[in-house]
């Protein structure tokens, strides 16, 4: 398997130099606003909770607290964003605008001058001023990490009115936008390599030594004299001319009989039994004598004999000594670390790539996600206990990650369905919904008559059975031309594309671009009527295409950007946003600019549930203890709703309308 | 004999810190720094040439004054600098004797203080590594060793034997507060090691118990040693270093010197200078 998905795209040459020079140091971690607000707002963001599943299990009496809340107030599907991808959807919620206003259109955007994918949510630039002394490169200024989302976040507006807010791990807020409010970044926060998370796996088993896996590195090791010696790779050392990867060495001592090992590195030593996770371990990568990068990781001893197998989680940014900006004020992550110890800071904590690549099995993945969930629940109790005024937003990712990875166990039609595994793990999704139900009970104890309580999700979920190679469809339909047709499927990043004879291409998970003259480097389509006609023609053909295997239409709707977006950034949008039908999603190859031979293929991956579809296929949910007046509330309606509750004037740029 | 000395010397510190065990460790640190400053002043007072020190310091002051007054005369300036250097050397020679007298008691004090300020007791639920180090000629794979269950600890792993290090390790999890005895049966012989769990803010912690040997016992006087013919060289419990926190600021290690030692030296020297006038000591 050689695909790259959204999690990996963030590995875009982030520099250690910038890692070392960012951030400020303020120690106060009080919520900024001083005003005692007569009304309070508590929002739980449960990523990916699906209205159909929720309703089903509510009816069956399995989610009594969701039922109770719905009875107290209301429960409705929540219209999601176009496309229903988390960074887009949460940006709608954060700004009250659609992508034309906040400029996040997909997980992945593209640089039209290079036909190259770029991460949509943040941009990291290295320091430009350096001095070279021999092999040493010394930066004279800091690098930068910028949040690419446009528009004001609702907590920034509340700040203007002195209303305190705590925003816990909301997606699409890395780096956290400048504010004195207490915020900590969530989805989009990289590991210390600057990627979405690269695990390390050390094994003596030759068959596991795949060369090219996404999201991880597999290292062959030997057991010599009951000892393994290996290296854990860290960030690139930008202080050295040849930019080597930093590394620390570690030793594993293995008992000759018992399935137990001791791992030692730097000033750490700890003992692990087989199939056991370590606690967080601090790692210090020294770049030059005065500069180092701190990270935290967990070890998992998968097997001792007959083959040695050790998994090391992606190295998270250390919240106690963050080398990249992950909270406002900076002291907020330090405060949490002091109270709870090190915790997951990487945007999405559970390692889906390790599960996808059979490095972790279903049970091991769940154990890891349970650790992340446990941390988050502990911190929730802490934040809830001190929530006395203003707004608290608290986010949970386990609902999303478990549905992505375990949908195959509830969908018998899914190509990756395995009845044995389904018997064991078929309740995983139901269980996480039940876990969230318990969370609601905890929250509702705190909710008084003056508290508006909102439980929401950014989108729902559906099965991802068939993968649509959009670029292949464009090629087969005559909109995309290859230089060497016999090389089809072998090249990434459109390396085999004849741009002068190409009219359209796709990067990202729902985005389709016209190869427009004057915008793309080798544009072939004139702006104006030619492009207009082409866009409508492609949209229409996409909507009318049928899967020869199932007879279904893979594309439910192809949205034309200028018809559905408003705001100053519409020109940056993809020309068409592809809304996939139930069971369909873009293939793993499409976001990378690869053109496989088949238009449609079965998705045999463990990543089996998805939401990058048509917004009507995967609406989110809203439950609240107030009656909702709006007939079809949408994500971007919640922003003005919050402002209205606090009596704050709603800025004209906000497109949504209050729902109460 | 060494053990008797260690016991008596250890008891003195137990006595000094007895009333301060439940208080902030800074109180105990200030107390011991005051006592150390007094001891240093006492040693200086009675072992050094006080008159000589006074005379030399006056000479240095005079030549410093000469340096300022005759700064336009190069020859006088050079001469004054030469004299300052000469009297400084003499000052150092006067200080050498008290320094030499103090060095041994100071080392013994530091060894004791390390037990009180060097380590953080375990807390219930906390995991640690217990290491049994064997003498040369003993192989951890061949030796018959067992760790007896204790109410204070859960033994979380089977023994991990590292042949090349002649070590046997276990992972323990602290369960109950108190000072617990860990009991090992090695080739039918019984050995014990004390482990401290969440006691008072200031508590005595001995991470290493060693075999009878003068140097070993001098450096590790916390517990009675194993017999000289024991197959066990040492038993170690891994404790975390103690944090010295000053108004929320965690004092860092300084070039490998632990925070408590930095604080102790700084306080002792400052207090020595503060108190020297009261006791009329020339230093």
Please characterize this protein's 3D structure:
- The complex is a heterodimer of chains A (660) and B (283).
- Chain A has 660 residues and is an alpha+beta fold.
- Chain A has a domain at 465-610.
- Chain A has 16 helices and 34 strands.
- In chain A, strand 27 and strand 28 form a beta hairpin.
- In chain A, helix 10 packs antiparallel against helix 12 (428-446).
- Chain B is α+β, with helices and mostly antiparallel strands.
- Chain B folds into two domains: 2-118 and 251-275, no CATH class; 121-241, Immunoglobulins (Immunoglobulin-like, Sandwich).
- Chain B is built from six helices and 13 strands.
- In chain B, the strands form four sheets. In chain B, strands 2, 4, 5, 6, 9 and 10 form a six-stranded antiparallel β-sheet that branches. In chain B, strands 3-7-8 form a three-stranded antiparallel β-sheet, with no helix packed on it. Chain B has a two-stranded antiparallel ribbon with strand order 1-11.
- In chain B, helix 2 packs across helix 4, helix 2 (25-47) crosses helix 6 and helix 3 (50-69) crosses helix 4.
- The mean pLDDT of chain B is 92.
- Chain A binds chain B through residues 225-227, 253, 255-256, 258, 260-262, 269-271, 273, 279, and chain B through 127, 129, 141, 156-165, 169-171, 238.
- Chain A: It holds the Pfam family Phosphodiest.
Features:
heterodimer, A: 660 residues, alpha+beta, eight-stranded mixed β-sheet, 16 helices, 24% helix, globular, disordered N terminus, B: 283 residues, Immunoglobulin-like, 2 domains, six-stranded antiparallel β-sheet, three-stranded antiparallel β-sheet, 13 strands, 45% helix, 21% strand, elongated, Alkaline_phosphatase_core_sf (chain A), TAT_signal (chain A), Phosphodiest/P_Trfase (chain A)
